[in-house]
Write a structure and sequence with these properties.
This protein is mostly helical. Helix content is 54%, strand content 4%. β5 and β6 form a beta hairpin.
């Protein structure tokens, strides 16, 4: 009988683990009796015995680590559905990822990790085109540069659609898993937002006298289609989150606002499209834009309070999550662009009897929109400054590793830039814009505006173009270095296995897993039970690892099957583990 001793630096009081004797290690027909139905340790020893390999050594080295992620993946690939081992809580995740970096994967294997976060790339690209369309100081090549980003955005969007469709076709289970994953599901609205930015760019660069009325009529129809998609997508993602996932305030980031983003770009889209349609159609577009923009901003505003509470109680997010802080800039920025832009058009599109006195109603609406925009512009700039200085420490240390949410450096700040141009126009000197002039793309941005804010917006535009180039280059570099499109490197970490399921297959907040221990010396503890009160993948990994070790301890004869606790809020009594 061989004795297997595990020395764990955290679990100092670990019980001695015993194995069943292996009768004939050289015979291909020799097998071990089953002791733990879900234990990867048993499966490993069976493979060794069947292959004629010698028994395990008295210590557990890396080559025979039963909780090694690569080994578990291989077991599942070979058809062992019971093998669901996780990396131990005390293990160094960097070592596992470093070893994976030297592994060769096929193209289809990398496609499996093409997540919804890739649509943040098209969001940012379309946002750059949107900013270039609003620059007040026109120069030769500005329109062409905006068209370049507009066309590039369409190409990148087609690439994203093809890649994520290939992922779901080759691995059908990942489609449902992406909707239920606590992180990746938050970025599903990025695909809807990408469509919205393309429609917005078409209104800015395509609709006009050169294309004719057919494109204008088409864009009006697509505007209402997008409004319906934004409402359904935003509310649907939130409902899925609220019914399948559990979050704590310590996990809160501004990414929670992201499902509301499809609603936030309706206002800017409405202001651009309404300036190029008939007054009757423009008024309908503006009313719809105000309604949806209000929904998006109010939902975001309520989540703002949770974010501030999280900052007050838990300090800043982890360095890898801090780029998401810029998402808090977007709700105010897009609302300013939409409300101010639509407010300036209202006096030109309402009838004489609108709200009793159309002229007075139009002017009052315009004034209220301007002052409300200025009020929100201060809020957006405050969140921008907080987000910038939150990156001072990791940026100076060079500890930030690329991830697709880095495009949060771009897209929300395009909203702040266009908002700056809108405030400059609203509070600068004006000349009257007739109905015929509303068909000209440059009519709104040709207002003189406040020079200081216009210059500030132009500086921000230049910085955004540079930042987009840097982030895009960093993305290509990360693909080459296998930092993304690689297992356990993106927002799909532990996808499909992060949530515990009950015995009936239904998802639940709590679930009991029974591990029956059979064999010699196993009478002291017949079972180990775990109750998991969290959905975090790391916690689930710890719970499973400790239950397996507790069951092995009982089979070895220590009499109680007790696992080993640590300082992470874990309590154990007689084989029962609760993760609070």
């Amino acid at each position: 009988m061989s004795l297997l001793q595990v020395d764990d630096p955290i679990e100092q009081s670990s019980a001695t683990l015993k194995e069943q004797p292996i009768s004939d290690h050289t015979s291909s027909n020799s097998t071990m009796s089953s002791r733990t139905a879900n234990s990867c340790v048993q499966g490993r020893v069976e493979d060794m015995a069947a292959s004629g390999l010698p028994p395990p050594t008295p210590f557990m080295n890396d080559a025979f680590d039963p909780f090694d992620r690569d080994f578990a993946a291989k077991r599942r690939k070979d058809g062992d559905v019971h093998c669901d081992c996780r990396t131990p809580a005390h293990a160094d995740p960097g070592s596992s990822q470093q070893s994976m970096s030297h592994t060769r994967l096929r193209f289809r294997d990398r496609v499996r990790h093409f997540t919804w976060t890739w649509f943040t790339m098209t969001m940012a690209t379309g946002g750059i085109a949107n900013v270039l369309a609003h620059v007040p100081y026109q120069f030769p090549g500005l329109y062409a540069l905006g068209c370049v980003f507009f066309i590039l955005n369409i190409v990148l969007f087609a690439f994203n659609v093809a890649m994520i469709s290939a992922r779901f076709y080759l691995y059908p289970s990942t489609f449902k898993a992406s909707f239920l994953h606590p992180t990746e599901s938050l970025f599903i609205p990025a695909s809807i937002i990408s469509v919205g930015t393309i429609l917005l760019n078409i209104s800015e660069f395509g609709v006009g006298d050169k294309t004719g009325p057919w494109l204008t009529d088409t864009m009006i129809v697509l505007y209402w289609v997008y409004c319906a998609a934004a409402i359904l997508g935003s509310s649907g993602i939130y409902l899925i989150m609220w019914s399948t996932q559990t979050f704590t305030i310590s996990q809160m980031t501004p990414v929670w606002i992201f499902p509301a983003y499809p609603l936030l770009i309706v206002g800017p889209h409405a202001s651009n499209l309404a300036s190029k349609t008939s007054p009757s159609a423009a008024l309908e577009i503006i009313i719809g834009g105000v309604v949806l923009q209000g929904i998006g901003f109010m939902v975001s505003l309520m989540i703002y309070s949770a974010f501030l509470y999280r900052l007050m109680t838990q300090k800043l997010p982890k360095e890898s999550l801090r780029p998401g802080m810029f998402i808090s800039v977007g709700p105010s920025g897009f609302t300013i662009s939409g409300i101010v832009g639509m407010g300036q058009l209202v006096p030109q599109v309402v009838g004489a009897d609108f709200m009793g006195d159309g002229v007075l109603a139009g002017q009052v609406t315009k004034i209220v929109a301007n002052w409300a925009g200025l009020w929100l512009w201060g809020l957006a700039f405050w969140f921008f400054l907080v987000s910038v200085f939150a990156h001072w420490s990791p940026a100076t240390r060079g500890t930030m590793r690329f991830a697709m949410p880095w495009y949060s450096f771009i897209f929300p700040n395009t909203a702040l830039t266009t908002a700056t141009f809108a405030i400059a126009r609203a509070f600068g000197p004006h000349h009257h814009i007739s109905t015929s002039q509303r068909t000209d793309l440059a009519s709104a941005s040709s207002q003189p505006g406040l020079p200081a804010l216009n210059i500030l917006g132009c500086v921000m535009t230049g910085l955004l173009v540079v930042a987009w180039t840097a982030v895009f280059a960093a993305m290509l570099r990360a693909v080459y270095l296998r930092q993304i499109l690689w297992p356990q490197r993106q927002e799909d970490r532990d996808e499909g296995g992060w949530v515990k399921k009950d015995d009936d297959g239904e998802d639940g907040d709590e679930g009991d897993e029974e591990v029956v221990v059979e064999g010699e010396g196993g009478e002291g503890a017949k079972e180990g039970v775990r109750k998991v009160r969290t959905r975090r993948p790391s916690m689930l990994g710890r719970a499973r690892e400790r239950v397996l070790r507790g069951a092995e301890g009982g089979a070895g004869g220590n009499g109680n099957g007790r696992g080993i606790g640590d300082a992470n809020g874990v309590q154990k009594r007689r084989g029962v583990e609760e993760v609070v």
